[in-house]
């Protein structure tokens, strides 16, 4: 089972605040249940809604948007759609993204 944030996370952009820490595990369980049961939405609409809900829950201290984009691409591949391209501006961002890809693969393989 994944472990989620244990301290308050502050988002510096926008006016949205993540939910209280105590609610994160329950919200993630609800999101995963919704994702697994939702069959009526077009795959692109489904991944867009998943992305929006996931980044609002903000379950990790860092990397929530990267993780969400990777999960969106995984779902698009599974449904036979094209990938969303991730813009990488710097070598540091490329290294961070590669690290996230490795971690996400490990999660799905365990």
UniProtKB/TrEMBL annotation:
<protein>
    <submittedName>
        <fullName>Fic family protein</fullName>
    </submittedName>
</protein>
<feature type="domain" description="Fido">
    <location>
        <begin position="1"/>
        <end position="110"/>
    </location>
</feature>
<dbReference type="InterPro" id="IPR040198">
    <property type="entry name" value="Fido_containing"/>
</dbReference>
<dbReference type="InterPro" id="IPR003812">
    <property type="entry name" value="Fido"/>
</dbReference>
<dbReference type="Pfam" id="PF02661">
    <property type="entry name" value="Fic"/>
</dbReference>
<dbReference type="InterPro" id="IPR036597">
    <property type="entry name" value="Fido-like_dom_sf"/>
</dbReference>
